[in-house]
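Q: For a teaching handout, I want to show students what a protein-ligand complex looks like in token form. Below are the inputs, and the small molecule is guanosine-5'-diphosphate. Please produce the holo structure.
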Amino acid sequence: QAQTKMAAMMDLERTYIMIKPDGVQRGLIGDIVKRFEQKGFKLVAAKLYSPSRAHFEKHYEDLKGKKFFPSMIDYMITGPVFCMVWAGKGAVKTGRKMLGETNPADSLPGSIRGDFCIDIGRNICHGSDTVENAEKEIALWFPEGTNAWTSHSQGWIYE
Ligand code: GDP
Ligand code: MG
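A: Here is the structure, written as tokens, with guanosine-5'-diphosphate included.
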């Protein structure tokens, strides 16, 4: 009973993490997945996917007025992206920290952007910024739903 309740709480927070076309092209899928796995987050969905321009415009609709918007969408549709949902306590906030700052130049070494990229327009990854946006993004990218499973490490990751 207590175990079931603990599992439910740890699965409650989910974040949408996406490796952009430059990250896929540069062979960084494995490195990025590895960091989230090693941290202790649980992968509940993943796929390589080539969405339409309209799909990206929806995903980035908050940025529609920005000058860089059209070229940013051009970049996003150059090839497949690797879409993931990671679950765990504090997954949204910690996921953002693991990615680093939007501009790789401001990202500390040890973060994904700090270690693997240079330009803001080629910053290799996306991560949800709030729990609310995470759920919106998960619904947009994984309408088929995510996978429920119990990690055998659970009791070694959570107190
Ligand atoms: P994020 O949440 O850290 O990814 O940052 P935002 O939501 O503010 O922006 C979304 C994405 O748009 C960023 O990851 C960048 O790829 C791109 N972007 C943001 N600001 C700029 C900019 O000033 N120039 C360019 N070229 N791209 C930008
Ligand atoms: Mg953002």
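A: Two things your students might notice: Residues 2-12 form the longest helix (11 residues). The pocket of magnesium ion (ligand 2) is lined by residues 129 (CB under 6 Å).
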